Amino acid sequence: MTAEARAALDGLDEAAPLDEVARRLDGEVSPALLALAKALVVQAGGLGAVTQAVEGFGGFAQQYEQIEKVSAHHGNFWEVLLYGQIGRDRATMFDLADTLELTATSEDGRVLDALAHAQRHQAARGEYITAFDENGREVDLSFATQNWRRAVLDKARPGQFVRKHFEAMVFTALAEELRTGDVAVVGSEEFADWSKQLLTWEAVQEKLGAYLVEVGLAEEGERAEFDAQFFRRQLEDKLRSAAAAADAGYPDNEGLVIDPETGIPSLKPHRSEGQRASARRLEEEIKARMPERSLMGILARTAYWVEWWQRFGPASGNEPKLTDPFGRYVITVFVKGTNMGPYEAARHIPGVSGHELSYTANRHFSTVLLNEAIADLVNAHAQLDISQAWGDGTAVAADGTHMDTYLDNLLAETSVRYGKPGGIAYHHVSDTYIALFTHFIPCGVWEAVYIIEGLLKNTSEVKPTTVHADTQGQSYPVFALAHLLGFDLMPRIRNWKDSVFYRPSKQTEYEHIDALFGEPGKNVIDWDLIESQFRHLMRVAVSVREGAISSATLLKRLRSGSKKNATYTAFREVGRVIRTVQLLRYLSDAPLRRRVTAATNKVESFNRFSQWIGFGNRGVIAENDPVEQEKAMKFNALLTNTVIFHNALDIAEIVRQLLEEGWTIEPEDLACISPYLTEHINRFGEYSTHELVIQPEAYDPKLDVDFTPLREQDPTAAGFGQAA
């Protein structure tokens, strides 16, 4: 039967249907055999589909090669995969390297030597290139990691480099050194050799004594003896004192618990007691009595009172003057601060055209003048008694919020966090709720580099000494620079369990908190390094204070571990001291933790409030020019500050009314009232300009409430930082 079946099926195409098989066998085949044959055909068809799909991706050989690469990647050997991602940009990277004049900022030029070797073999298309330069010396790869050397060197071909991996390694190392400042671009602003901008030591010596007293690093009588050894002892005493205090206070520290078995620390969450009933009653009464206002009216009244509008004017005296500068400037701030756009606003505001508003914004307003106007409002706000309910101006919180932009401009980036294009409005908000300074920065930058910059550019009379920030503020260089400039940096520390605590010496041990510092004898401060780099630390600090170099530029270069930069290592070591001190304070002081949380909550409330005011164009910044984008943020900050100032005056007036009616106003209750009130403000409709000509009566900054008790207790107990 088998022989007959083979003869009958001889020459049959393997793709023939089952009916043809049955016909040739004259039906003499069992149903089971047909079912088996059908299953085999289906299986063959499935394998054929898989084979066809693999061939569409380059065949099995190419897939086996990719599998081998992925297998290598399992050992964190991602380097062999990088060229596949950047290879398409090879020509562009070589063109840039040929065009830019690159220079090493230290005596270590190994990366630039390797780049020169890659450039000499740019035309090569083979898999390998020689490992020797034109002088017969082997190219030094000691700057590269072990994985990179594994990828670049082939044991079967000594004296040669794997070309594609060598190029990927060189351009990766070059990008890193440009970021850290170990390689500079001649003639560049962003990637210049920042060390060239520092003042000379001779110039620093002339200013150092006064500088140390000004920032609080030395007392008047200590100026002469402040040297490298004095600075070292000062930092060492600070660390030893903080650690000793934390250790001694641990038995009474109900918030901190260190597991005796594992040594793992934990903080007990603080449970808020909530707002007092009297504070809720006062808040409801104030909200009910807040007079109805329009944004245009608020701007006009504050312009009469504070005269911030007089800061603006044409850049050149040759330009024609405006017929009504007061009215035009108030309307322009309203239009730009709400983000409406001049031509859209002209449809709702009688008597002005979009061209006039656009011309005024471009020719009569600059970032410098806007900063001055903002400072005028900050100074006026600081003179109000009501502002004492919220703080004394010595603390500031810094944080950013995402702002939508169009993608076709130099500053916009797609935010990883928000998944859409835009930039970051970075605000420094005083403990009295008002914004001291505002930046507009790209989404991709490290926000912490702007913590110090905003404080240094603040021109108001409010000079905070304590800076709160989110978790991004936990950088060694930022802590170090803040300390050297006289600021007490205390960020909100969410991942403090992952932070490293540093010991003053190898021999130092603590009775209760030793587990925080890790293994005994480890994580020790290098005091000799700090002492040896004293002059350079002082050069950097004084240069930043004098404006010779931007703190943002400096911190961008010191963001992470340059292995060659002595400035980075010195800042890192000082930062380790200061951050350890601040961590110990944070864990030991429950009221301090509440103040930090309250301050950062306050700046987040400001972000929401400013975005509520900037309602135009659905919150999207339409400007594509980075300068105009920065101005847009400052227009919004100016308008927001006018509303905060005016709300504070309205709250104070209502409090005076309540006092006359026999109310007893406790300062702790008044501290719970936020000036970020919006229910009484009209944002939409036809924008009347009649309020521009109504000159208000002088305001009264005084308030018959004693706020002294607020300065003598934990501010959070009185509702510090509460926002509506």
Summarize the structure.
With 724 residues, this protein is of the alpha/beta class.
Q: How is the main sheet built?
A: 7 strands, mixed
Q: What overall form do the CA principal axes indicate?
A: globular
Give the end-to-end Cα distance, rounded to a whole number of Å. 93 Å
What is the helix tally?
Answer: 27
Residue windows where pLDDT falls under 50 for at least 5 positions:
715-724
Q: What is the helix fraction of residues, given as a range? A: 40-55%
Q: Which structural class should the secondary elements be placed in?
A: alpha/beta
Proportion of strand residues:
5-15%
Counted beta strands: 15
Rg from alpha-carbon coordinates: 34 Å
Q: What's the rounded overall pLDDT mean?
A: 85
What's the SSE blueprint?
Blueprint: H1 2-9, H2 18-24, H3 31-56, H4 60-73, H5 79-86, H6 90-99, E1 102-104, H7 110-120, E2 128-130, H8 146-152, E3 160-162, H9 163-180, E4 183-185, H10 201-215, H11 228-249, E5 256-258, E6 265-267, H12 277-289, E7 293-294, H13 295-306, H14 325-337, H15 342-346, H16 354-364, H17 367-382, E8 395-405, E9 413-414, E10 421-430, E11 435-442, H18 450-457, E12 466-469, H19 476-484, E13 488-489, H20 527-532, H21 534-545, H22 551-557, H23 566-588, H24 590-613, E14 620-621, H25 626-660, H26 667-670, E15 681-682, H27 708-711
Parallel strand pairs: 7-15, 8-12, 8-14, 12-13
Antiparallel strand pairs: 1-4, 2-3, 5-6, 8-10, 9-10, 10-11
